[in-house]
Amino acid sequence: MNSTEDRLSSLKAFDSTKSGVKGITDNGILEIPHIFINKDIINNQVKPSKSNFSIPVIDLKDTSSRGSSVHWLMINKLRDACEKGGFFQIINHGIPVDVMEEMIDGVRGFHEQESEVKKEFYSRNESRTFTYNSNFDLYQAKSTNWRDSIGCVLAPQAPDPEELPIVCRDIMLKYSNHVKNLGLTLFELLSEALGLKPDHLKEMKCAEGIYMLGHYYPPCPQPELTLGFTSHTDSGFLTILLQDEIGGLQVQYEDQWIDVPHVPGALVVNVADMLQLITNDKFKSSVHRVIPKKMGPRISVACLFRTHFVEAMSSTLLYGPINELLSEENPALYREITTRDYIVQRYSQGLDAAPTLSHFKLERESARA
């Protein structure tokens, strides 16, 4: 077989086990299978960053004191974070620490069940409410990531509890309620940071859909040869990430990779592609990745404020740069698109392909004319 046929055969064999990366590590391997070897990471080994940039930490305790000088200092810090790195951490966000810890334990509990129990949920059908698999872009990406994931649609319709695994059912529902409320607060603050009325982004339905991803990164015997999550930007409008203390998340800033450290009690928030589009590049959806570790497992829980696959396929709502942010000096950079346009483009390629937003730039259409 040629290399393409060999890789496809190996991918199918891996997928058919329905045991993910954890199933491989449970066998006590000393070398990673060839489908996980990432030539780009080998040729550009991870080096310590020389940048002085650090991920800002924003205190939300004064969100209710709208109009005060403290509130506007917070808004200014939020605006600065979204315009520069697109990443920030938040403290005093209202989600109890014990709920966050229980959510991490719930994701770990699912992935560390007996393989036969997990296989019931293994699927690549994005229309399902709850799925478990390894690498959503397994057959599109150039190399496979060292990661297993569960995914669940949390909003606009809350999932039927009976569709969720018992091991993490209660905490997923509890945590999702907290995240919904936090998301509404953040979109109000982001609206203010854009100079708009607080309800603007909510009225655009940016906060309606929530998709949860529970990632499990097993210990990797050769972390220098692969990635836990390849370089990418997030879909949707905003992501709220809960991560454990293992580390490995990095964001790209001025061609340097910056570590996003674990801050006890904090949540990581980042701008996603659709928010960059509607703000006409004012807010940045930054490229980020996860470096695997020999220790672990690493656990993270990402809640993406986005329209999920099924809803996106029937949506006719158009999103383009917000009119109030445009002027002769700042013309629209993107054409109006539906969430279906975005999702179709996103799922047609691996995460290691060209950035999804680049397909919707107006300059691109002009160049083709």
Automatic annotation (TrEMBL):
UniProt-listed SUPFAM superfamilies: Clavaminate synthase-like
Keywords of this entry: Iron, Metal-binding, Oxidoreductase, Vitamin C
GO MF entries: 2-oxoglutarate-dependent dioxygenase activity; L-ascorbic acid binding; metal ion binding
Residues of the Fe2OG dioxygenase domain: 208-309
InterPro entries listed in its UniProt record: DIOX_N (IPR026992), IPNS-like_FE2OG_OXY (IPR044861), IPNS-like_sf (IPR027443), Oxoglu/Fe-dep_dioxygenase_dom (IPR005123)
UniProt record, GO biological process: coumarin biosynthetic process; response to molecule of fungal origin
Keyword Iron: yes
Similarity remark: Belongs to the iron/ascorbate-dependent oxidoreductase family.
PANTHER family: 1-AMINOCYCLOPROPANE-1-CARBOXYLATE OXIDASE HOMOLOG 1-LIKE (PTHR10209:SF884), OXIDOREDUCTASE, 2OG-FE II OXYGENASE FAMILY PROTEIN (PTHR10209)
The name this protein goes by in its record: Oxidoreductase
Source species: Lithospermum erythrorhizon (Purple gromwell)
